[in-house]
Every structure is written in C-alpha cells, then in structure tokens.
Amino acid sequence: MSKDSTGNIVVGVDGSEVGAAAVRYAAVRARREGCGVHVVHVLPHMIPMNPMLPLGSADTFPEVGARIVDAARIEAEKVGGSDVRVTTAVVEGHRASAIVNEAEGARLIVLGHADRSRIHMFTDRTFAGVAAHSSCPVIAVPATWHDLSRDKIVVGVADTEQVDGALEEAFRRADAMDAQLAIVHAWMVDNAYEDIIFDRVEREEIRRRGEAGIRAAITGLRSDFPEVEVSVVVEHAEPARAVLNHSQDATLVILGRRSRHGLPDLQLGSTTRTVVRHATCPVEVVPVSASAASPAS
User: Which pLDDT score is estimated for 161?
Assistant: First the structure.
C-alpha cells in the first residue's frame, strides 16, 4: 500500500503564518502539476520548562496537532480546488527527520521560512535538516509569498561544464510555467590575493570560457525544451550575492545540493543557506549526485 506522500507534494506545518504560506504554495503547485498535497505536523518531543509559561501536558499535543493539520487542510483545499486531494498526518520524532521519513516517495517537500529580518531558529534548522537529507527537492517559501505572475526562474550553477539535476529541474519548471530561465554562475577568490592573481583581462577570459562551457553543456536540454528562453550570466562576484541580485524579479530560485565522494552532504553549503535566508521568492534545493551530472559533449 502506498503512502499518502507517494507522488505528491508534502508540506510541513506548525500553525504559524510561515507554515500557512507554505500550504498555499504547495496547493498552487499541486494544482498546476496535477497531484495531491500531504500535510504533515510533527509533535514537539519535549515540553518547555519555564516558570513564566503555563504547565502543559503532552497528552494535549495530539489534539493541538490535529487542529493544526485540519486548518492547513482547509486552506489547501480552498487554494487548490476540488482537483487537489489533501491528506494529513500528525507524527512524532525529531522535526527534520520525521518530515523526511513521512515524505518517502514524494515529488517535493515544501516548508515555510521566516522573513530574514526575524530570528526563527526552528525554521532555519528544520529546512537545513530536511534539505540536507531528503531524496527529493525541498522548497523554502517566504512568509510573505503570494502567487505572483512573474515569468522568470533563476538557477545557480557551480560547475560550468556539467549538467546536473538542478539545471534539469530548472528547464522543466521554466517549460511548465512558460518562464524565462536565467542560469547564473559566479566566482570569487580571497580578496587579499585577488588583484595579484587576476587582472581584468584574465577575469574576462574566465567569464568568456565559463559562458561558453555552460552553453555547450545545456545543448541537450535546449533541444529537449526548445520553447524555454535562456540567458547565461557568468560574473566575478560572491555566488550567493549574484544569485540574490538576479532573483529580485524571479518567481523561483533553484540550487543544487551536491554529494561528495558519493555521499550526500549532511549540511547545506554557505551559498545555499545565504540564498534561502535572504531570497524574496521561493528557493528550491535539488539533490544532485555525482552520477547524475553529465559532462558537456
């Protein structure tokens, strides 16, 4: 018997407005992709002990959890319409690992992310933990997200000579949404040595080679998705800042999470963490294995 998550979009909720934005995004995406939404809430595994807080009982946690997922179900059904089947689950365990386990077989995990001006330790840690261990893409949705009709997707690439899962996902999403696709690659070395190592001519040559490498690498994808309008940006800049600058008018940012030596990273890289924390649009993190990447022909 298949799980409710199989082939569907899993969204984690906690009863906050941050989680509500994630529910709305998941419902919109499910409506577009013709799949269902599986709403998941993870019960707290400890009771806060603070003299300033009323003493609670763990016996009431399932009741609260049931109310949280029921409210999320109602919102998802309202946004998604009658064509989107919504299921719910209240589970126990460590928040990130419980969501990953519940999302086995899912096509996508959606989580809310707090506004960058606020400290929200739990959403930061939960997203990082889920994205670092999930076998499917994971999206961070800002609390201020609305279904804006923007027509641009930005994908950040670290390698200028290989096609990986992030690029493939970016082409698929751009084709499905009839959106423009901006491929962004940026590089920077330690500022203390930069002027000694590189001059302007060398930087321009690196930029030219990088752009040529990307265009050669995506030849097959452009043949598969001929309707997608593609721009390639290679610039001398801090990678996270470059992606953020080019995503100001974007509807989605896509980044890859690479494996090292055949094993998945247990933490997100600094570029991904920075983009997720500061982006004004949803950020999708796609797991990329070494075997999935293909060199330019």
Answer: 76
SS3 199: coil
9-142 and 152-295 share one CATH topology?
Answer: yes
User: 3-class SS at 58?
Assistant: helix
Q: Is there a contact between 76 and 27 (Cβ–Cβ < 8 Å)?
A: yes
- What CATH number does the domain located at 152-295 have? 3.40.50.12370
Which pTM value belongs to this model?
0.86
How are the residues of the chain apportioned to helix, strand and coil, as percentages rounded to the nearest 5? 40, 25, 35
Q: In the chain, which ranges are continuous DSSP H helix?
A: 17-33, 61-80, 95-102, 121-133, 165-177, 191-197, 200-217, 219-224, 239-246, 270-278
Domain 9-142, what fold?
A: Rossmann fold (3.40.50)
Which residue type does 87 have?
Answer: T
- Beta strands 252-260 and 283-288: pairing type? parallel
**Residue 98 in this model has a pLDDT that exceeds 50:** yes
